[in-house]
Write a structure and sequence with these properties.
The structure is a single chain. The protein has 246 residues and is mainly alpha-helical. The chain has twelve helices and no strands. The chain has one domain. It is globular and about 55 Å long. It binds heme C (4 copies).
Length: 246
């Protein structure tokens, strides 16, 4: 897609965010962009710098170990059965999907014979695509698709710390332990948009709030989610006189 277009779209969505927070004060103010417009944003490198999650992931010195490793601790029912939940979702099929008849057809239209070998497809369908080998643990398998570490950052340090903890204090299974902020990353909207954008040949409108609910996996002891879409500011009609109570 053209860069000028991309910039315009990004500016548009920035204006949208501002527009929702600040109501126009004069008749010269521009109409706010309609909120139901799809987030058609091909996230540029410049825009990605605004994502706290992508920044933290890029700065991490840990290695990508792969979902099979996370499964060993995060699949207990008492801890939310997170791995099973993920396996039922499209993300875990990111790589196998690229061999489907649908993928071959999409590939053909773009002159790509083997989507499972093409950077043009793999960059969004597997975790850690294009990173240097030194960033990947020897057991890391890209074939497992869009894995935990796409959203939570590379996990080798976390695995090491938690393994040591488990050995030392034999923590009761099913208790929720709060671990230090920063040990693992929590994703934000821009992280999702780095793949869910119109560079995807099968692009569907990405609704952050709704899609977040689809993939969410809380610890059973957690009372409320920590990752939420930004609150919508309720619009007041300024032409109507304010209602008095009573
Ligand atoms: C040795 C066991 C173990 C392994 C392996 C493990 N974790 Fe964890 N993880 C924990 C424990 C314990 C917690 C604390 C919450 C809980 O009790 O479930 C935790 C918490 C987390 C959290 C929440 C962080 C927060 O700020 O609250 C994330 C995200 C996470 N793990 C992701 C992963 C990923 C991704 C992998 C694989 C790369 C992984 N874990 C592998 C034990 C493990
Ligand atoms: C910019 C990231 C991106 C790229 C590049 C990309 N995909 Fe995808 N793909 C996605 C996302 C995100 C989805 C989930 C639904 C959607 O928005 O299309 C998806 C879904 C799909 C689906 C399932 C469609 C459906 O309706 O559920 C197929 C098939 C697919 N991609 C094939 C490909 C092939 C083949 C290529 C390479 C030619 C490719 N993708 C390149 C991000 C991407
Ligand atoms: C597409 C992004 C995505 C993927 C892939 C993903 N997660 Fe998460 N994960 C999230 C989000 C978003 C949250 C925040 C939930 C909330 O709102 O509290 C989360 C929360 C967590 C938590 C904390 C739960 C709690 O309530 O304390 C753990 C642990 C975790 N994920 C582990 C994993 C593991 C293990 C995998 C792979 C099997 C995985 N995640 C795959 C997005 C993802
Ligand atoms: C590395 C790229 C990538 C990132 C980052 C990513 N996704 Fe996806 N997502 C995909 C692909 C690829 C698919 C389609 C997989 C398929 O159907 O084969 C998909 C599918 C989905 C689906 C459809 C699920 C289903 O079971 O069909 C939802 C919902 C979704 N993603 C939400 C999110 C959210 C929310 C985030 C951010 C927290 C996120 N994704 C981040 C690549 C990504």
């Amino acid at each position: 897609m053209k860069n000028s277009n991309a910039t315009a779209m990004i500016l548009g969505s920035a204006l949208l965010a501002v527009g929702l927070a600040i109501q126009p004060t004069s008749s010269f103010a521009q109409e706010p962009v309609k909120a139901q417009e799809p987030a058609k944003v091909a996230v540029t490198a410049e825009k990605k710098k605004e994502s706290a999650a992508l920044k933290a992931i890029a700065a991490s010195k840990a290695l990508y170990v792969g979902a099979a490793k996370c499964k060993s601790c995060h699949n207990k029912e008492s801890q939310g059965g997170i791995n099973d939940k993920w396996e039922k979702m499209g993300h875990s099929k990111g790589f196998t999907q690229l061999a489907s008849p649908e993928s071959l057809k999409l590939g053909k239209e773009l002159g790509i014979k083997k989507p499972q070998e093409a950077a043009e497809c793999l960059k969004c369908h597997v975790t850690a695509y294009g990173l240097p080998k030194e960033k990947l643990h020897k057991r890391f398998k890209p074939e497992l698709g869009v894995q935990c570490e796409t959203c939570h950052g590379p996990g080798s340090d976390h695995v090491k710390t938690r393994l040591t903890e488990a050995k030392e204090n034999k923590v009761e299974s099913g208790t929720l332990r709060e671990i230090p902020a920063g040990e693992m990353v929590m994703p934000d909207e821009l992280l999702c948009l780095s793949c869910h954008n119109e560079d995807s040949p099968s692009y569907k409108e990405f609704k952050y709030g709704k899609n977040l609910e689809t993939i969410r996996h809380l610890h059973p002891k957690r009372e409320k989610p920590r990752v939420l879409p930004p609150k919508k500011v309720v619009k007041k009609d300024s032409t109507e006189p304010a209602k008095k109570d009573g």
